[in-house]
Amino acid sequence: MHNNSQKLTANPPPIQSHTACCWLGALWVCLLVVIALWPATARSSTLFATAQLGWDIPMDRLNDPLGHLGPDAVAATETSAMTSRLSTPLNAGYLGHTVWLRFEVPAPTLGPGQEGLWLLAQPTYLDFVTLYQKGVNGEWLEQTSGDLVPPNQKVGIRQHLFRLVPGQTALVRIQTTSAIQFQAEVLTTEALAVELARSERGMGLYFGAMAILLVCIWAATAIFRTRALFSLAVLGTVSTIHIFNVRGYGSLWSPDEFTVWASHAVGIGAFLLPATLAWQIKEQLTRGTRYRRTDRLLTFLIALNLLGTLSVPLGFYPAVAWVNLVSLLAADVAGVAMCLLTLRRRDRIAAHALLLAAYGLHGLGGVPIAILMTGLVPLRIDATSLWQLEAIAFTSLLAIAVFVGMVARYRQAQLAKDRAIERLALSEHSLEERIEQRTAQLTEAQTALGQALENERTLRDEQKQFFHMISHEFRTPLAVIDSAAAEQQAFPSPDLPSQTDRAAQIRRACRRLTSLVDSCLINERLDSAGFSLQASPTRVSDLLQHAAQLVHWSPRHHLQLFTDAAPEEWVCDATLVHIALSNLVDNAVKYAAAGEIFIAARRGESGLLEISVADEGSGMSLDVMNRIFERFERGDRTDQSRGFGLGLWVARRVARLHGGDITVESTVGEGTCFTLSLQAQRIGQG
Q: Chain-centre distance of CA 262, in angstroms?
């Protein structure tokens, strides 16, 4: 397995080719931008334009809030009564009422082949633009244009085009729900042809560049299927369609029955643009991140602008048109802030630096556009052209940023794959080591099993020794019983004391047998899994008297019993305590020299019941006291055939099961004292 991982890591897939492809695509997009921008900026106004309204030809402006004025009234109005005298193009913002312009058409000397003068005006999204000039008979001649005018009633170009009579007064009536702007040029026929050709050539190159860019983005979206690419493709498509409508192509090419909706498409596009921009920023920067407030703000902007599209067919678009401008700025600010925060974390620096440049450019470019659209400052700039150039640069930067981000993520995925393969190799190597370790453990287990079998043999030998000891221990009291009974049978005596002594011997031997049996049985009982104490109230005096009988039956010892300091009752397992005390007293009777045996009971300072058994025997050394409580331990009396080392071990286990213990105090040559301590149990415990 380890060799397989080495094969995987030996030749990792190259990632340099993917990076090169992305950068070549970015350079191609930049080239398209340059091609699109060049025709729009390469213009020599002095070659084709005779004069521009506002800059070269002053004009008077008259507001018509009610829309009731006619050309006669406007022509008869004194200049001083006009709202203002304009020396710049008209830029009034969202007024919502009719505006009149009045100017004098120049009378230049026309060369051979020049038929007359023309007025070429924009923007094309004005609803109605009507030009009035008097004819030969003194009547006002009317020429109408606008995106609400059916195509069959206009000249076959997208701009507003009017024929002018040189040297006469011209009146222009503007009525629209959009921002009121009016930029117009007075051109000769030759200059008009060249200007229209130049304008359409520039627009063709622009839409061609945008089409190529969008085809690339949509193709990448179909291949990679990412939300960021899809949102970018939708944003670029909406921007292109909106520019197409703003430039008047929708109104020019739509059927007559769709003229109104072709006009509405401009306002609807103005709201769809900030909605798709906010969606693109949401997908690119905030979706699935911890910036939930910004994500909710972008969602609010999307919903707000989608609702704003309803204002166009419902007729109150001018009142809410500012919403889309503010939304664009708010979305750009959010995008810039998210990019700055991401750059501080040093996460995909190249991609987010490009995104920062894109949103920054879009935001900065939107400021002068908003100023022009709202009519705050008159500038000698076509707001639509400025926004058009900014749109292709913005879309191109976004496309480059998205592709660079994809390359960065691809690299990260490739590195993660390489690390995963390395970890796989390490895990395989670790698995091999673990197999070796498990093999060693199995070997050790086999060795341990052999040792366990050996221990089992040893245990069986110990059991044989144990039963040999038990059989020997049982013979002694049985011999005493048999001897006493045989003597009583062979030499019956009417002497009562003699019979009493023989009965005492028999009873003591029987008690000894009982103690041996109890110790053997309790040894097995204490080791059983279901063992529990059988606690009940027991008289302390009964416990002591039961154990003291062993002393009474011994002709060599005398009992000293002290129970004044003992409680009357104690909750314990009486059977186990009887066995423990009997073992302590039996040891004293067996091993102590003739003399006194002391049994005392009292409640200790810790609240435990303390029962002491003391003798006047030979005592024990410190070494013997340290091991006297071990199983099968017989102290330093292994040469004697009395006891098999279970009594004290059983007594200590009984004490500890009751929450107490056994302690021993002894001095060589002076005697030994065992103290059994018991904690009171709860009735029914166990």
A: 47
